[in-house]
Amino acid sequence: MPDPRFFRKVGPFTAAELAERAGARLVAEAEGGRVFTDAGPLGGADAQTVSFLDNVKYLSALSQTAAGAVFIKSAYADRAPEGCLRLISETPYRAFALAVQMFYPEPAVTPSVHPSAVVAEDAQIGSGVRIDAGAVIESGVELGDDVWIGANTVVEAGVVVGARTRVGPNVSLSFCLVGSDCRILAGVRIGTRGFGFAMDERGHIDVPQLGRVVVGTGVEIGANTSIDRGMSDDTEVGDGVRIDNLVHIGHNVKIGRGAVLCGQTGVAGSAVLEDYVVTAGQVGIGPHMRVGRGAQFASKSGAWRDVPAGAKVGGVPAMPIGDWHRANALVARMVAQSRGKGRNNKDEE
Which end of the chain has a smaller Cβ tally under 10 Å, C or N? Predict the structure, then answer.
């Protein structure tokens, strides 16, 4: 169960309220008044907990759960145990996430400016803003309404942060425009100098990085991620993008709407990722390449050629996922055969 020292729970809520918020259909409408006090996984749930089934691997856990209600696809609704209310949704994990948000809402922003914060006189600070201890807000900064700036964060001159965006502690924002309703977690660096220089044996010559970083609305950027500003054009992160911890995005990169970049992904300069691209952990994407809409990368993939829309790729160099699996199987067979031959030769000796 969530530790109450860190997570504030509200409620209770009725089954009907949960169904309405999650966009689900309650099979037993007469039971809509049943009250629930929490949301959680199938194991350990009780009669006042709402849970979910999204992966068929957990059908056995469903049969044994004591949860009072479960978000579930219609195809598996009859597998819920007796007495467990069925909340029908074809996207049960999404429905469950919305229910969890009901029980555990984000804390409200309490407007305040800590005495140790440094705020430039000409900074434009919206209503309801919170600025925590040690934060620095430089000249010409614009903070929208209900923005939260975490402790020791530095917002450099001219930066704009949209309404309701929350910026964690120890973040640095420079040369950037950040949209509304974003979440920027601890240690993020946005607008750092792009890695651009003219290589020369007489000494490498820095190329001034004169662009910005433009972040859309509803973006989440994970802890210790860095996003370089552009050289002349802007680095762009589209609306609704989700970026995990420890991701690096090079200068002039363009990331489309709804893309998902998992931990330790690296995107080299001037690459273009179209809408809804997904990279698993430790993926590397080369410079100046284009990744088409909805393409997906397996973990540890490395790509330096364009990837078409909708493709699923893996390996280094990245190849169609089916070819990658076949190549791995072929290598495994070759290794096994080699071992077998080695044993036979030893027996002959």
Answer: C
Residues 51 and 31: beta-carbon distance below 8 Å: no
For this structure, is 251 an active site residue?
A: yes
Contact assessment for residue 153 and residue 168, using Cβ atoms and an 8 Å cutoff: yes
Where do the H-state alpha helices sit in 50-90? 59-64
Give tens-digit pLDDT for 55-96: 888 899 999 999 999 999 999 999 999 889 999 999 999 999
Query: What's the predicted TM-score (pTM) here?
Result: 0.88
Exposed e or buried b for every residue in 279-304, given b needs 16+ CB within 10 A?
bbbbbbbbeebbbbbbbbbbeebbbe
Phi, psi of 197, deg, nearest 5? -160, 155
Active-site residue among 114, 204, 251, 288? Answer: 251
Cα dihedral 236/239/244/246 (nearest 10): 20
Q: Under the phi-then-psi rule, with left for phi > 0, alpha for psi from -120 to 50, and beta for the rest, what region is 346? A: alpha
